[in-house]
């Protein structure tokens, strides 16, 4: 669905869409948001017009992303509340500097920054240890680079397991945001070939505590990583809210030693 189509939908229709998307009844939402079921029903049917504060209030209780909150405001006849600042704008200087410090401090371990669509925003130098020989065109999108047959996929030892993990994360993101473009990305990725079984449910094997990324390196060794995803905790700008920093850590001593040797000037505690 295009932005123009979203803006043309009445507020009540969008509100009902998000309530049903969150699998809430009118009664459940009215209790959570502390408004009457009657008033909520009137809002959904168009018999009542919401105030600006009411749109934001309900959006908060439905945990609607900032971008979609703006859509709701526009559909109700109000100006957007949340800005979307380019990363190269002056007000984003502090954010970009913070990201660069985090990326640099994480070396010699790899780290990337992605936007809502998993497009690569920034990365540290160590990511080259993972992404060696990957087509630069594929590297513009992290998920595409990971699962494409001309990307990392042929070097991922546990491709079926890692692919199922990434697609599961993407499904959960689609469920949260309702983003049609992410749905298209999911369909594309799901169509990529995979010659390994893909678990429907992630269950640990003996001694497993998380899903690792096991990767064949050109040196002939196998590198093993786990990752941590961080987001900004108090975003009031759409761009900031949609950024995610994924930091990779060695999952075994051999990988840690290899990374330290690859960037000898770094001291890792």
UniProtKB/TrEMBL annotation:
Residues 15-69 form the HTH cro/C1-type domain. Coiled coil: none annotated. This is Helix-turn-helix domain-containing protein. It comes from Sphaerimonospora cavernae.
